[in-house]
Amino acid sequence: MERGPDAGTTVQVANPTDAGTPAAGNPLRWFVFTVVIAANIMDLMDATIVNIAGPSIRSALGGSASTLQWLPAGYTLAFAVFLITGARLGDMFGRRRLFLIGSAGFTVMSAACAAAPSMEVLIVFRVLQGSFGALMIPQGFGMLKEVFAEEEMTKVFGTFGPMMGLSILAAPILAGALVEANLWGIGWRLVFLINVPIGIATFVGAVRVLPRTVAHPGLRLDTGGMVLIGVALTAIIYPLIEGRSDAWPAWTFVSLAVGAALLGVFVLWERRGRGDPLIEPGLLANRTYVSGILVALAFFGAFGGLLLCVSLFAQLGEHFSPVHAGLTLTGMVVGMIAGMGAGFALVKRLGRHLLHLGVAIVAAGTVVLALTVTGAQTVSTLDLAPGLFLIGLGAGASMGQLFDFILAGVGMDEVGSASGVLEAVQQLSSALGVAVLGTVFFSAFDRHLPTHALAITAWACLVPLVATFLLVFRLPMHAREPQL
């Protein structure tokens, strides 16, 4: 899905090797594509790779069960908070410049994660890594649309999707292989260290081939909105992760209430529309779009949280090796890729019903998973495969088309801002899913068999899935046609 730049952004290509070449004929355009996709692969893999590496990291550095939730949640929370801000900074100071800053910072933070001496320090570095990723990612797609002719964009995104799918498939297997390889005796640190050569190559390539873009220093950064949303989300996610280990003291409920109140203040702040808000005020008054935001929150939260819990169950419950745990998730990812292909083929015929079908298949897979582990003392990878495949199949069919349905009710002048907010919501929902479902899993894990804990988590996952199914009725019947 395209992480669209803000609508109205004006970008001018200035290729240092051929300043007079129009964007449509930029001879370096496929090199630009390679740089952008390398950055996205690094981000995608880092958002999920610690699901497999987490138990090994905790074994080496210590920490409570909640630290296994913070490793992915810290990254995705920071990414969500700074993503929209990153797009705005690209408008203000030039997308090429922000991409270079983001890729350099991401690479440095990857090396810092690899060298972290304690779990607390590692989590801080993960937050910083996600922040730099949020500066880097929004810039790439804006530049792709500047260097490719309109008739080539279908080929660009047709190539982009499968490569992202392969990255999703490779991430858990790669994480397990790197941890078990234990090259030079550094074990899990390789999971982060592998980003360094890729990051360096991406930065060098970006310096050489990315187009220079026009800066708009007259734009203003909505600092107040950024602070409000950052504090609000932290106040909600922090007690959800830490509350269980502290037996849910009063401060956790106070923090949740404060976070909810600050979200309300943030909405009022953005609706004022003064200066250059993070979110176009019209979007917050669009009931269809707001319903779509709720769909994304519920759906991606359910999927992201369940993915973490299955990874933890495989290693902490069944004592699978890291590479075995990674391979256990292969059925889910194969199903996801198949679902994406089917979704593209069926979306025009089924319309909104495709989303209902996809969510229903995810729910069916979740039920199959719950029934598989219920009453069992132990399960194998093959036992888990049918449920995980169905979850992936339904998720792929839904995820591949969801944003186009949500954006169908948004005006063309707001599509850029709307798509950026959706990307941030996707990251935020993953952090919330990890916090909520991870807490359910560990609460049950402390008192029951691991299989029982996974069953309870799977049944709990049906709550946001049912909410997603009902909310989809509020979306348009047909998706937005691509505007390339």
Overview of this protein structure:
With 484 residues, the chain is mainly α. It folds into 3 domains: 21-222, Growth Hormone, Chain: A; 227-274; 286-484, MFS general substrate transporter like domains (Growth Hormone, Chain: A). It is 76% helix and 0% strand. It is built from 18 helices and no strands. The protein has helices at 29-48, 50-61, 65-93, 95-115, 119-147, 153-181, 189-193, 195-209, 223-242, 250-272, 281-284, 287-317, 322-328, 330-350, 353-373, 381-406, 415-445, 450-471. α6 (153-181) packs antiparallel against α13 (322-328). The longest helix has 31 residues, at 287-317. It starts with 28 loop residues before the first helix and ends in a 13-residue tail after the last helix. Mean pLDDT is 83; it is low at 1-24.
Q: What are the main properties of this structure?
A:
single chain, 484 residues, mainly alpha, Growth Hormone, Chain: A, 18 helices, 76% helix, globular, disordered N terminus
